[in-house]
Design brief:
Layout (H helix, E strand, L loop, with lengths): L1 H15 L4 E18 L2 E19 L2 E8 L5 H17 L17 E4 L7 H12 L4 E16 L4 E18 L2 E9 L4 H18 L9 E7 L1 H11 L6 H5 L6 H4 L11 E3 L20 E5 L2 E2 L6 H7 L13 E4 L9 H5 L2 E4 L2 E8 L4 E6 L4 E4 L2 E5 L4 E5 H4 L4 E12 L11 E14 L2
Parallel strand pairs: 4-6, 8-13, 12-20
Antiparallel strand pairs: 1-2, 1-5, 2-3, 5-6, 6-7, 8-20, 9-10, 9-12, 10-11, 13-16, 14-15, 15-18, 16-17, 19-20
Helix pairs in contact: 1-2, 3-4
């Protein structure tokens, strides 16, 4: 219904344009069920249905945008008609935008995924059954998300699909808990139960006296979640063409060929397999896949339309130069053999408070958190006391990278501020020969 509604709004707006005017419409809509759990029980349940339309009026190199909240009914056309004179007045006040670049070759598209999720009540029942006897806390978000684009040139794009994410923890005692996150476009109750059972087993290790390590270098295994925290930092300018051109990228030395990562590292933006739409706000179509790092060497950066205009390039991403569907190629280490391969060292489930300690060297500092363990001879023997690490990804993903797991996990941003997030990462675990703890 919202697809046809957007088409009708676009057709009506086209009839109201004056000579020399153009427009783009960008729609984000969702129907989401939110369920909050605490102590293994449902504590709050609700549903959100919303649709927001960004209406941009263009004249030459000038642009002005207003966001409208749509109901899906006939009143929405009145909102557009009321916004039009306001945007025309704004165009009189703004200057030309030298980096405005819009797609002028219409490319319409449609991607509608088949309904794959059970009712939210069934998903909740699976969670409650798996969590019985445990102090589980978390939030389940599930439902349909839709994205649409239209412009004055007749281009129309639509994407619609269902997805879910469950951000949860099992609480032990004091400040001890095991934190996990699961997501997907199809529901798998058995996999969820397996993850909760595995987390429950780790709760027993958290009851043991904590192991305090001296600052120094230790072998380490990063779960996909912990590795994801490190790769989140690369998304902070590391895959941006503008940041490379302005010499601010943390991967500048990699982009300029001064350093190489491990041949195991194949990093890509896999938009065709993500939750974000393959079209973007300026009307360009994003590639299904962009290779960012191939065999440890820099391949491409992400280029938004503004950078494309500034540097005379072809855009290959959305309105911001960060990966929305990051994928790291799997290795050949079976996940169930990761502890054995680690031998003696640290098992890292979760990291937080990350920041660059030396951006030019891609050096990152952060803290261990939630179910990190000390391992001896391939067996967990104690929870790890809180530690601060400080090391370079040029090292961790370079000469120190020993193996990547054969299995990968899908990690979806659980954010819902203003609307459900669609950023995702598909990552393996990583075994490194040395990680430096500073305190």
């Amino acid at each position: 219904m919202m697809r046809a509604h957007l088409q009708a709004l676009a057709a009506a707006l086209s009839a109201l344009l004056r000579e020399g005017e153009g427009y783009t419409l960008w729609l984000e809509a969702e129907r989401t069920n939110f369920v909050r759990f605490n102590h293994g029980k449902v504590r709050q349940a609700g549903a959100v249905e919303q649709a927001y339309l960004d209406m941009r009026l263009i004249r030459g190199q000038r642009q002005a945008t207003q966001q409208l909240s749509l109901s899906g009914g006939p009143d929405d056309m009145a909102l557009l008609e009321a916004a039009l004179p306001e945007l025309r007045a704004a165009l009189e006040q703004v200057q030309d935008d030298p980096f405005l670049l819009l797609n002028e070759q219409p490319q319409s598209s449609e991607r509608i995924a088949q309904h794959a999720l059970p009712p939210a009540e069934n998903m909740v029942a699976d969670i409650l059954a798996a969590a019985e006897g445990h102090d589980l806390v978390g939030i389940l978000a599930s439902g349909q998300m839709s994205f649409g684009f239209a412009n004055h040139l007749g281009q129309f794009n639509w994407q619609q699909g269902e997805s879910w994410n469950f951000d949860w923890s099992l609480y032990s005692h004091g400040d001890k808990a095991v934190k996990r996150s699961q997501a997907g476009t199809a529901w798998d109750g058995a996999a969820l139960r397996g993850a909760i059972d595995e987390a429950a087993g780790q709760l027993e290790w958290l009851k043991l006296p904590a192991k305090t390590l001296e600052p120094g270098e230790y072998r380490a295994y990063f779960t996909p979640s912990a590795l994801g925290a490190l790769l989140n930092m690369l998304n902070w300018g590391g895959v941006s063409e503008k940041e490379v051109r302005s010499k601010r990228s943390p991967l500048l030395k990699l982009a300029e060929g001064e350093v190489k990562l491990s041949p195991l590292v194949h990093l890509a933006e896999a938009g065709g397999e993500g939750l974000s739409p393959l079209f973007q706000r300026e009307g360009f179509i994003r590639p299904e896949r962009v290779e960012l790092i191939s065999g440890g060497e820099h391949s491409n950066s992400l280029i938004d339309p503004r950078s494309a205009r500034e540097y005379g390039l072809q855009p290959n991403t959305g309105s911001m130069e960060f990966a929305e569907a990051m994928q790291l190629q799997a290795g050949d280490l079976p996940r169930d053999q990761a502890l054995q391969a680690l031998g003696t060292g640290v098992y890292l489930s979760n990291l937080w408070y990350l920041n660059f300690s030396d951006r030019s060297a891609c050096r990152i500092t952060g803290m261990t958190r939630f179910a990190c363990f000390w391992v001896e001879d391939g067996k967990i023997v104690a929870p790890l006391g809180v530690m601060r690490f400080d090391d370079s990804l040029f090292s961790l993903l370079g000469e120190q990278l020993e193996a990547l797991t054969a299995e990968r996990e899908l990690l979806v941003d659980a954010g819902s501020y203003g609307g459900r997030a669609t950023q995702s990462k598909l990552l393996p675990g990583a075994l490194v020969k040395s990680l430096r703890f500073s305190l």
